[in-house]
Automatic annotation (TrEMBL):
This is Lrp/AsnC family transcriptional regulator. Pfam families: AsnC_trans_reg (PF01037), HTH_AsnC-type (PF13404). Coiled coil: none annotated. The keyword Cytoplasm does not apply.
Length: 163
């Protein structure tokens, strides 16, 4: 990966709506060169998707997100890959990560309510033969996601204290 492409990726990560013309200006490069680099990164799946970060708490109160710690027994010959694939194919699953530490997989799940997430864990996730245990953590409030702060914070109105 060239330094030029890395700079383009950083700029797109900050704001995916930046045009090749704007990126070219920011990098002091030709627009055609930037457009070609972006096209190449899309073709080789370095750039997988352009996404919008939404603060769903402003729109829906019913949506529930949970992080589930999953301990599993790896499959012979495939390790964690096969089980991870079975899990990430469920539509409720937003993300799956292989972890170091006390558990093997971290699974991020989204549901309309607590019961829906609980039903996913008890009816779909836990019955998988390689799953040894699960521990579900419901996300109560998101303060920051993907580098974006959701809360409008007020300036500190306290009086300064001097010695």
């Amino acid at each position: 990966m060239t330094e030029f492409k890395l700079k383009i990726l950083e700029l797109l990560k900050e704001d995916a709506r930046r045009s090749p013309a704007l990126i070219a200006t920011m990098l002091g490069a030709a627009e055609a060169e930037v457009a070609e680099a972006i096209k190449e990164m899309e073709a080789d799946h370095t750039i997988v998707k352009y996404a919008t970060v939404v603060n769903w708490s402003k729109i829906e109160d019913e949506k529930v997100d949970a992080l589930i710690e999953v301990q599993i027994t790896p499959e012979r010959g495939r390790g964690f890959e096969g089980i991870a694939e079975r899990i990430y194919l469920y539509p409720e699953v937003k993300s799956v990560y292989l972890m170091s530490g006390a558990y093997d997989l971290a699974v991020e799940v989204e549901g309309r309510n607590l019961k829906e997430v609980a039903a996913f864990v008890s009816n779909k996730l836990s019955p998988i033969e390689s799953v040894l245990s699960t521990k579900t953590h419901f996300i109560l409030k998101k303060y920051k996601q993907d580098g974006i702060i959701f809360e409008d914070h007020e300036d500190d109105h306290r009086m300064p204290i001097s010695p």
